[in-house]
Amino acid sequence: MRILIADASPLYRRGVRLFLQQAGFRSLVMETNCLDDMHRFVNFYYKDRWGQQQGLDLVILDRCLPGLTTFSQLSGFNLAHPPRFLVMAESVDRAFI
After folding, report:
1. Dist. CA 70–CA 95, nearest whole Å
2. CB count, 10 Å around CB of 8?
């Protein structure tokens, strides 16, 4: 499983990474701290050992990620291999949704 943790806090990203490892996820885990880099990771492909192009499976996303103001910014990702998003938030702001 290929997972991207997108959060401004290096400490939070480290904690999520450790939790995933302790939960048994033996996967490729990448980290980023801003929306622009998240877009680069999500649209990045690599070839697996069979030569197939692969993308991310899951993006764990901080709702307060720098640059993210609305969920519509999550559109426009690679449609051939769209990831699932898990959005973490301290509170719900209906204007954001």
Report:
1. 8
2. 14
